[in-house]
Amino acid sequence: MNFEAYIARRYFASGRYFVSVSTWITIFGVILGVGVVCFVMAMHNGLESEMRSRLLGT
Q1: SS3 of residue 13 by DSSP
Q2: CA 54 to CA 58: how far, in whole Å?
Q3: Counting runs of H as helices and runs of E as strands, what totals does the chain give?
Q4: Does the global pTM surpass 0.70?
Q5: Is the distance from CB of 22 to CB of 11 less than 8 angstroms?
Q6: Cα distance between residue 34 and residue 27, in whole Å
Q7: 31-55 pLDDT per residue, tens
Q8: Domain locations along the chain
């Protein structure tokens, strides 16, 4: 087993409830943040290509 998996397993398997709740809230926040950034970048790229095609008439 690699070192990172060992540390992650020990951290998530700890018996302290507060650590687990705060960990899950943090993980959810990171997932939500990455999802929002991906969505905004996709919208920006789509808008940019749409504006470029309308302005250049291609």
Answers
A1: coil
A2: 7
A3: 2, 0
A4: no
A5: no
A6: 11
A7: 999 999 999 999 999 999 888 888 9
A8: 16-56
